[in-house]
Amino acid sequence: MHSPQDASEAVGLMWDLVTALEKGERDYVDSGAEVVQLTFVQHPTMMREALAEFERQVALDPAPAGAVPEIVETVRDVIGSPDETF
Questions:
Q1: CA distances from 44 to 25, 69, 80 (A)
Q2: Does residue 80 come out as left (phi exceeding 0), alpha (psi in the -120 to 50 range) or beta?
Q3: Band of the pLDDT at 53, cuts 50, 70, 90?
Q4: What per-residue confidence (pLDDT) applies to 81?
Q5: Taking a C-beta distance cutoff of 8 angstroms, is the pair 14, 36 a contact?
Q6: Is the Cα torsion angle 33, 34, 38, 41 positive or negative in sign?
Q7: Is 20 helix (H, G, I), strand (E, B) or coil?
Q8: Angle subtended at Cα 3 by Cα 40 and Cα 44, rounded to the nearest 5 degrees
């Protein structure tokens, strides 16, 4: 797994983390979270944009309405809540 080079790749990685969580792939989730956290430190503006885009996509997803905040909150928890860091 490599660090995302742009916001689009970062959004893809966040969706990968959601899929891995659903499948119970804890090792992938842990390593993915580390990559996302490190990328937040190195490129905070890009990653804030990515997180905002991810949240927008989740809101548009046909998931049950109650699941949208849960999905976003789960990803925020996994990546270490970047809003508190910066």
A1: 27, 22, 13
A2: left
A3: very high
A4: 60
A5: yes
A6: positive
A7: helix
A8: 20
* Residue 54: how many other CB atoms lie within 10 Å: 24
Pick from 3, 15, 8, 13: nearest CA to 71: 15
Instruction: Give me 37's structure tokens.
Output: 């956290």
**Residue carrying the six token digits 């804890």:** 26
What tens digit of pLDDT does each residue of 4-49 get? 889 999 899 888 888 888 888 888 888 888 888 888 889 989 988 9
Two structure tokens written together for 17: 């983390």
Q: How far is CA 25 from CA 28, 29, 41, 46, in A?
A: 6, 6, 25, 26
